[in-house]
Amino acid sequence: MRPVLFDLFGLSVNSYGVSKAAAALVAGFLLVREFRRMGWDEDRAWTLTMATTLFGFVGAKAYFLAEHPGNISLHHFGASGFTWYGGFIAGTSTVLVLARRWRLPLVPLAGVLASPLAAAYAIGRVGCFLAGDGTYGRPSDLPWAMAFPNGAVPTSVPVHPTALYETVAALALAVALWQLRTRVRPVTLIAVYLLVSGGTRLLIEELRINSETWLGLTQPQLWSVLLTIAGVGLLLHGVHHRGRTAMEDASAPTPQETGSGQRA
After folding, report:
1. Dist. CA 103–CA 100, nearest whole Å
2. Mind giving me the DSSP string for 226-254?
3. What pTM does this model have?
4. Given its phi and psi angles, is residue 39 left (phi above 0), alpha (psi -120 to 50 degrees) or beta?
5. What's the confidence (pLDDT) of residue 71?
6. How many angstroms separate the CA atoms of 83 and 220, rounded?
7. Sign of CA dihedral 91, 27, 60, 110
8. Is residue 190 within 8 Å of residue 107, measured between CB atoms?
9. 3-class DSSP state of 130
10. Is the pLDDT of residue 15 over 50?
11. pLDDT in tens, 67-109
């Protein structure tokens, strides 16, 4: 593992920070293309990316500190110690505020955000893997199990590299959403993102060592259940909407029935 990629003028450049910067750049690049396709101001794509990244980090750190109220030290205010769901909540709030200020339609905006967000998550998890930040899983004897003796949270016992599992899943989701973005309705893109990302984390948590909080589930699993339920709900809503639209189209009078049809 390589928590520190290299030294530059006496300063250590860590893999965790580089991965987060790369995630923001890739997400911004994809978002610019989507804003251009939608006919929106491209400059706002970068503004949105930077704002959600900044406030996402603030939210992720605040959530982490709230999780450890009795065990906080100066170390916890450094470059480690972030909770993704805190960042997700803060980032979503930022999107809501900017969408209202710019008068952008919220559902189409959320739809174009789905693929860039999944891609950013995939890249960010690479940084977690390289840093060995403790987001790995339980001990394992599988051929691809890995030890992290030099990680930020070291372990000499081979464990599930769950950060890599999430990277592969998120990257596949990003590619699928990018391919679907012009073929399905935005609400379907949002539903697929919520369903797959929530379901993936729900399953991967079974391999990790986080403490259970309620109903035998860890805190990330509880959030994952909410995301998965929201995704299923949006998919069912989309199916119902399409079915109702089809019924209305089928029951609509034809030009001949309304007397407006042309005669040869």
Report:
1. 5
2. HHHHHHHHHHHHHHHHHHHHHHHHHHSPP
3. 0.84
4. left
5. 64
6. 9
7. positive
8. yes
9. helix
10. yes
11. 766 666 545 555 556 787 888 899 999 999 999 999 999 999 9
